[in-house]
Task: structure prediction
Amino acid sequence: MVIQKFDSKLQKRWILWPMLLYFIVSACSLRAQVRADSVFRAAMEQSYGVRFTDNNRFVLFSTGAEKFADMFRAVSQARKSIHLEYFNFRNDSISNELFALLKERVAQGVSVRILVDDFGNKSNDRPLRKKHLKDLRESGIEIVRYNPIRFPYVNHIFRRDHRKIVVIDGLVAYTGGMNVADYYIVGKPELGAWRDFHARLEGEIVNDLQKEFLEIWNFATRQHVSGPEFYTGYKDGRDFFSGLRADTTATSGMKTLGVVSRGPSAPRRKIHQAFIYGIRSAQSEITLMNPYFTLCRHLRREFRKAMERGVKLNILVSAKSDIPITPRVVEHNVHRLMKRGATVYFYEDGFQHGKVMMVDSVLTFMGSANLDSRSLTADFECNVAVCDRATTLEFLRFYQKAVENDAWQLTDETWKSRFSRKKRFGAWFWQFLWPFL
Result:
């Protein structure tokens, strides 16, 4: 009897263990089937209330010539309102051409509002002067300097407006990494071609970008600009504008997009956490293009964890930079990640200023945010989360073309051959300044 009872218990255990193992494997398989874009979307919705809409178009511009040609066509056809928010307008030919177009639209009854960051304006080599602002205001354009720099100056270091948002008639919007300057078209003598990304958006997401602009406009001006005339719901921009570049991908009009922006009322670490959630959502591959890869300790840790769980990490940074010290910190970070298994390339055909993260070929996170302390926790930034395979593949093609034709790979050998001992020491020494970069 004792033996029979023992056999009976043993049989039950042998039946239960395979069943338990089956449920564990099934649960793991189900988790693996959840795409990175879905995981990221759920995290941003739950943590920050980011709104995602599924009826959008996304047109990618990889050069300044493409962006400005398309945007100027849209501006010239505006009927009601034009809203522009930029870190800076360089006082050169492209800005002058834009302002001339805006004056024409004002003369036709279109309301034009421009917000420019005062530090961004003053820090560029050809800023807008008081006489330029006066001329624009006399023409009927409302132009406001965000957070004017005044004595004692140090209290204006943080919370700069680094966003790039343009909304026309509440129907089409532009956002990305480009300000308004000639060098986005012709480059700079000391750097060569200036590479960056921008996009035109259509669909319900335009309402979210309009909301972002009006919030900071009212915050800066103490006005109360609002009303249904600024929010069109869903309308097809192609019915109102002609000659604009088309979204030719298979998902045109069906893209899932969400605005991930940090403005005056947004949580301080919203952009920071968006990058964290993007990295954590990865199951197979993360591909990054970013010029100021100075990172924080949280991102460094998340990249290491991702590689430890088998995620392939690809990084493209610029071999040239417009900011001193920063390149040494970038070199230190990518070298450490390379030693842990990341594939790292240095772009040489000009200055690669694009700010894009692609995850598992299904999620793109692009916009104005750099991977430095200012963008991650201090300044106002605007990024777009694109939960769309077709668009992500467009970005990946640019990355692949860049690494194949215009970049060199970082290895143990190239680290020693391309960087002198002085530079390697500088990379180690200056990396301690990452919280201030």
